[in-house]
């Protein structure tokens, strides 16, 4: 049974375990926990500013995450979209459900502009975002307050006002 809920610092250890495994072991992204101190401070980094951090659980097991960093009055960045390999795809649609719940949160909280950065190696993720209405944009078109991650080299934008 799939359950999606907002989480905080209590889940940091499980979140770090899930995300680092996918980043390092599955996709060989050269990133460490030292590059992502936000994962130790979910409450402060994501929730306190008006963002969100959602987790997907199946029978109590953490199988997916998505986070939102609110960096301006009406703008936010999606971060930490990860789903465990065994739970990806249409059978579970976890990524889709996580994204839909996060977009709903944006609409309910006056966030009209949603940005994200990712790495070009994650081709399936890019296709997923494009299917969901995101458009690729150049790094130079990002708002000045956008929270850049060093590893990111592809950027996307979704305008919720036009949907």
Key words describing this protein structure:
163 residues; alpha+beta; 28% helix; globular
Structural account:
The chain is α+β, with helices and mostly antiparallel strands. The chain has 4 helices and 7 strands. It has helices at residues 12-26, 42-47, 94-108, 123-131; strands at residues 2-6, 52-58, 61-72, 75-83, 113-118, 135-137, 154-159. It has a 7-stranded mixed beta sheet with strand order 1-2-3-4-5-7-6, with helices on both faces. A hairpin with a 2-residue loop joins strand 3 and strand 4 (75-83). The longest helix is centred in the first third of the chain and has 15 residues, at 12-26. The protein starts with a strand and ends with a strand. The relative contact order is 0.16. The model has no long low-confidence stretch (mean pLDDT 95).
């Amino acid at each position: 049974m799939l359950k999606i809920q907002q989480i905080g610092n209590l889940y940091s250890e499980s979140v770090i375990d899930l995300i680092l495994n996918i980043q390092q072991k599955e996709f060989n992204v050269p990133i460490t926990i030292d590059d992502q101190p936000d994962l130790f401070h979910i409450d402060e980094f994501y929730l306190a500013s008006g963002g969100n951090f959602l987790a997907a659980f199946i029978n109590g097991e953490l199988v997916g995450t998505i986070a939102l960093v609110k960096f301006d009055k009406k703008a936010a960045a999606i971060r930490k979209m990860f789903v465990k390999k065994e739970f990806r795809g249409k059978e579970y649609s976890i990524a889709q459900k996580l994204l839909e719940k996060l977009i709903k949160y944006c609409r309910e909280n006056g966030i009209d502009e949603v940005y994200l950065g990712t790495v070009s190696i994650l081709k399936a993720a890019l296709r997923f975002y494009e299917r969901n209405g995101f458009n690729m944009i150049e790094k130079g078109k990002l708002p000045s307050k956008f929270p850049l991650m060093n590893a990111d080299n592809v950027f996307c934008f979704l305008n919720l006002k036009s949907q």
